[in-house]
Amino acid sequence: MGVVVKKVELSWLDRTYVWPVLKGMGITFKHFIKQLFTPTSKRYTIQYPDMKKVMPAGYRGLHELKRFEDGAIKCVACFMCAEACPARCISIEAEEFSDLNITQGFEEKRPQVFKIDMLRCIYCGMCEEACPKDAIWLRNDYEVAAYDRLSMQFGKWDLMNTYAEADGKARITEDPIPSAPRRAIAM
Amino acid sequence: MFLAFALITLLGALGMLLQKNIIVAGLFMVASFFGVAGLFVLLGNPVAAALQIIVYTGAILVLVLFVIMMLNSHEEEPAETSRPIQRWVSVVLSLALAAGAVKLVLASKGLQQLAEKGAPVPQGVTLQGVGAVLFANHLLGFEVAGLMLLAAMVGAVALTKRNL
Amino acid sequence: MDTLASLLHTSPALAWMVVKIVIVFSAVMLLASVWTWVERRGSAMIQDRIGPNRAALFGRIRIIGLAQLLADGIKFFFKEDLEPTDVNKGLFWLAPFLAFVPAMMGFAVIPFGRDFVSGGATYHLSVLDPGNGMGMLYPMAIGGLAVYGVLVAAWSSNNKWSILGGMRASAAMVSYEIGMSLAVVSIFMTTGGYDPAEIISAQGSLPWHWNVVPQFLGFIVFFTCMFAETNRLPFDFAEGESEIVAGFNTEYGSMKFSLLALAEYAHLMTASALVVTLFFGGWQVPFVAHPSVGLSILSFVVKLLFFAWVFVWIRWTLPRFRYDQMMRLGWKAMLPMSMVNLVVHAWLMSHGR
Q1: Are C37 and C73 in contact (CB under 8 A)?
Q2: B3-38 pLDDT, tens per residue?
Q3: Does the domain made of B1-76 have the CATH classification 3.30.930.20?
Q4: Please, what's the b/e burial string for B68-87 (b: 16 or more CB within 10 A of its CB; e: otherwise)?
């Protein structure tokens, strides 16, 4: 069964072809003038290196490993994210640490190595969903690029510092000696 | 100037004859026509030169090349068994044509005028002049040629388009 | 002019000739290359995009992207000159020149300003002086040669798509040439001469006496045919990304491609110069009976650029015609229209108008 095509009856003016062409030229010229006098910031095109798109709130970009105020990592190395990851790009090695003075006898876990292979990551956000401690966030940075494959293996300190500049926080490169019980801070 | 154009004409014609590839031969023919057009300009007849280029190189040869490409015969056809008599007949015919052309040129009024000293230099031919001559002195010939072309066109259409 | 001539140890006439040739052809080439940029930028604006604006001189001076044409030129110049294995070598090399030379040559008879008298001699502002006997036949003859560039490029590439593009483009050019010629003939008739200088001076300085007004039909036919002649977009049959790759220049790269592309724009310039000369009074300035030389040149250039822009503008307004549609338009609309135009004007002239 075919589709019934509705034929448009053209007026004689339209059938001269000259008038419709002039109309079309009018439309294109309108666009031309409009675009010509629109300031660069208001045009549809975002001129990328100079202008950057503001990402919406739910955007899943580069990961960040969250930290406590004193700089200690929130992650407890529970491996939930590594399990949830469909691309299997997260590899974690846990370590125990206990400082009896501070942790008050509790043994705590934290990742010694937390590695995300950014070339494999599909930015699905499952790790963020799975994390019981809200320790890993996917945030709005989309400029993940490097000159070689090795530098796309983001380690623990890379991941903790991904948004350091954007948030105005200090870059950290080692686990701080906690000054107060972790529980207290978490609560 | 004359030598250059004559050389272009002759070399073009020679190239056309000797070239095996039809398309290249056609392009040599274009060069040859160009030389002829240049000669027309030197003879003070730019209109003929322009018409030569418009009609021959611009239209007829394009169509010829077009047809050649459409048929797309890249390989040359082997010549049929050549008979020596053909060659002789062709030589005789071309000699007769050449003799006739030379005689015609020698007998023309313009050349005799050139031979006299102090004769007025013939003016360049203009399009108006061509039109006046064509429609006043040679009207019959013009109309007959037009009619013939029309008949040829109708014939071609009738031949190629079976079901009209 | 005399000082220049004495400097070069030649006659003023020869020096003037050389100056004219240099000015005209460098101007046309410059405009053609600028127009590659105008085309891209204009199309971008029409489509609400931005277009090439990032090329910069020394990485800093970014003149709204005008350095793009320099960058393009340099890029094309230094690209590897690739030559497919089965091409016809001689013709493959010849074709870009066959396309480029006629496109440039057509400009030679167009007067781009009014005559002026200096030192007792009259100087004409066109490469070929008026009264050369060729007149407007010359650009038409040269325009007919433009077919060869496309045809030879298409055939020598030894590529089916190339040959298809070249064939249909040349068929279009040949068929539209007839309508165009008839439109021009009716101008010859009403002017009573076929020299561009005569045509321009016959049109006078009043815009409603220019040939567009009495011969509007002729103008439409001529302008439409010019699109087919220059292979510009509504009748762009030499190329066609969706059906025949890039048409006749599929196999071309580097400088040869750049020559073919420049030829198109040079052709566009020549075509708009022809439109201006035939229908819009050439160098005549509206409402100024005896303009100064500079003003007349300015007027001509403004008109030329306007029509060159119209070519770009229409290209980005209309979609490409189908081949049979275009042929029907050419033979069943353009040819009868220009014939009607011719007959009507002949009738009017015979009744003493």
Answers
A1: no
A2: 888 888 888 888 888 877 777 888 888 888 888 888
A3: no
A4: ebeeeeeeeeeeeeeeeeee
Distance from CA of A43 to the nearest CA of C (A): 8
Measuring CA to CA, which residue among A27, A159, B74, B60 is closest to residue C158? Answer: B74
Does the structural domain A63-167 have CATH classification 3.30.70.3270?
yes
The domain spans of chain B are 1-76, 126-164
**How far is C314 from C214, CA to CA, in rounded Å?**
24
Cβ burial of A94 (10 Å; 0-12, 13-18, 19+) is: middle
> Mapping DSSP to helix (H, G, I), strand (E, B) and coil, where does residue A98 land?
coil
The rounded distance, in Å, linking the Cα atoms of B38 and B2 is 8
In this structure, are residues B61 and B29 in contact, taking their beta carbons and an 8 Å threshold?
yes
| Residue A103 or A59, more confident | A59
Using CB atoms, pick whichever of B63, B124, B128 lies closest to residue C174.
B63
Q: Which residues of C touch B69 (CB under 8 A)?
A: 151, 155, 163, 166-167
Judging contacts by C-beta atoms under 8 Å, the chain B residues touching residue C166 are: 69
Model confidence band, residue B147 (pLDDT cutoffs 50, 70, 90) = very high
Tell me whether chains A and B touch (3+ CB pairs under 8 A): no
B124 contacts in chain C (CB < 8 Å)? 133
What mean pLDDT do residues C84-97 have?
82
pLDDT tens digits, B84-129: 788 888 889 999 999 999 888 888 776 666 666 655 555 667 777 7
Indicate if the pLDDT at residue C73 is higher than 80.
yes
Mapped onto helix, strand or coil, the DSSP state of residue A71 is coil
Residue A115 pairs with which residues in a beta bridge?
A: A91
Question: Which residue of C46, C221, C310 to mutate against A (max A Cβ within 10 Å)?
Answer: C46
What's the rounded Cα separation, in Å, for the pair B63 and B57? 9
H helices of chain B, in order, are: 2-18, 22-42, 46-51, 61-71, 84-107, 109-115, 127-132, 139-160
Interhelix angle C137-156/B22-42, rounded to 10 degrees, is 160
Distance from CA of A37 to the nearest CA of C (A): 10
Q: What is the DSSP string of C215-243?
A: THHHHHHHHHHHHHHHT-GGG--S--HHH
Q: Do C167 and B70 touch (CB under 8 A)?
A: yes
Question: Cβ separation of A31 and C45 shorter than 8 Å?
Answer: yes
ipTM of the complex: 0.72
